[in-house]
Amino acid sequence: MSGLLGNLSSTSSAIQGHTRSIELAGKNIANINNPDYARQRLNTSSITTALGKDTVTITTREIQQLRDSFLDRQIVQESSFLSSFRARDDRLQELLGVMGETIDRVNDPSFIRDNPSDDGSLRSGINKFFNSFENFAARPTDQASRSELMRAAEDLVNSFNRASSRLDSLERSMKTEISTEVNSLNNRLDELSDLNRKIAKVELSTGANTAADLRDERQKLLEEIAEFTQIEIQEVPGSNGQISASLRDVNGDQTEILRPGFAPQKIFYNSDNNSFRTSTSSADIDLGAGKLPALQQVLGEDLDNLRGQIDTLANTIATEVNEVYYQAYVPAGTDPAVPEISFFDQPTPPPSISGQPSSVNASNIALYTGSQDPLITESIPLTQDSLRASDSSFAGSNDIALAIAGLSEQDFSALGGIKLSEFTTQTSVTLGQEIQSNANQMRVQQDVDTLIKDRRAQISGVSLDEEMANLVQFQRAFQASSRVFNVMSEMLETVVTQLR
């Protein structure tokens, strides 16, 4: 009797197991297109114990999540690098746009047109300006040449001012973006801490690795966090499946931002010095790789370098042109009295006369509108009619115009010993090469990311053929167990009937 009841109980347990296996197979099939889902299996084990003269079989079941923790961690790390390259690519393209240049040839990103047309780029504006001085030198009394030169000068000033304004706008935009992304990162850390607690609660009551769906959510969240910054993850022993997360500071010391039982550390961005910290860190945080450190690098290095190069270029042009064009003021009562004349507003007078370094940059370069010095009571603003080609009163003299036109072919120490036209080309080419180098690394990183995710899919992904085969197998096992259960139930009923 006890054997019959025991077998009936075992068969009932088997039916429950097959039912659960069928449910899991259906769940796996339902998530076949979910890349964040790891397929699940029901593992069973039986323990037979003696109870007096009888034996009792106890069946235990646990859900196994088919994941490779090493691959999961690799994907988290590689996601940070890929996000870095993508964010950097977008912003470097914008920096090249500040110069008015674009990369058109896929296989030769350093390609720069030798003779740019009037396309609005800074390089074409500089070329047009000095070409206009050549035409003015050839026909100094021609009104069309004068008009062309004034338009070229105004366009050049506007190009520098516009480039500076774009850099300022881009800097503000990037600082705002970084602050927004830091808030998003902190929100995700809060979500990660909440998932930690949920996993611990489930696995404390049901056993290790039983919170499979929550672990899937956590892995997805970790990969999202990795797009912001490179974090170090470690499962904490004895914490019922909880993990800790940490970053490194600039000194290489570990700073824990998440640990079981504590609220996550907030990350803060200081836009004044372009740095990151946590509420407890004693040094700035090194975010390693990801979108945030990529934006930090572009803002602190690439943008500053480009701004310095454009400012140097504007300063050199204004200073060198004024050195040739400038006429010093001689007050009335002196023979002969002369007004101050200049081409650009600054430096006036130029450094060779004042002994002071020039303060011109791309944001403040402007054409001369007259002296702002109260001691200089007479000056001539730069206009089409006031343009001068020479100090001489002889018609057709052009020594000043020729000298300024010749500046385009001179080497300047402030530009690294190269010509103005070469400097603008070199700046654009260097930035283009940086964009291409980043693009090459991004393609390689995409291949690595795809390879690792494909390997994980082979382990954790759902195979429709396999799941359908399992489904048929579990259904047949369920049917067989049900038939056994029915037969044993009938036998029990017969025994009970005979005992009446």
Task: Provide keyphrases for this structure.
10 helices, alpha+beta, 500 residues, Helix Hairpins, four-stranded antiparallel sheet, two-stranded antiparallel sheet
Structure overview:
By secondary structure, this protein is of the alpha+beta class. Among the domains are: 1-66 and 464-500, Helix Hairpins, CATH 1.10.287; 116-174 and 294-439, no CATH class. The chain contains ten helices and ten strands. The strands form four sheets. Strands 3, 4, 5 and 8 form a four-stranded antiparallel sheet that branches. A hairpin with a 2-residue loop joins strand 1 and strand 2 (54-65). Helix 1 (2-30) packs antiparallel against helix 10, helix 6 runs antiparallel to helix 8 (399-405) and helix 6 (291-325) packs antiparallel against helix 9. It starts with a helix and ends with a helix.
For the largest beta-sheet, the strand count, sense and barrel status come to: 4 strands, antiparallel
Contiguous low-pLDDT stretches (5 residues minimum) are 50-54
**Rg calc:** 38 Å
The termini sit apart by 15 Å
Helix content: 55-70%
Tell me the number of helical segments per DSSP (H or I, 4 or more residues long): 10
What is the general shape? rod-shaped
> What is the count of β-strands?
10
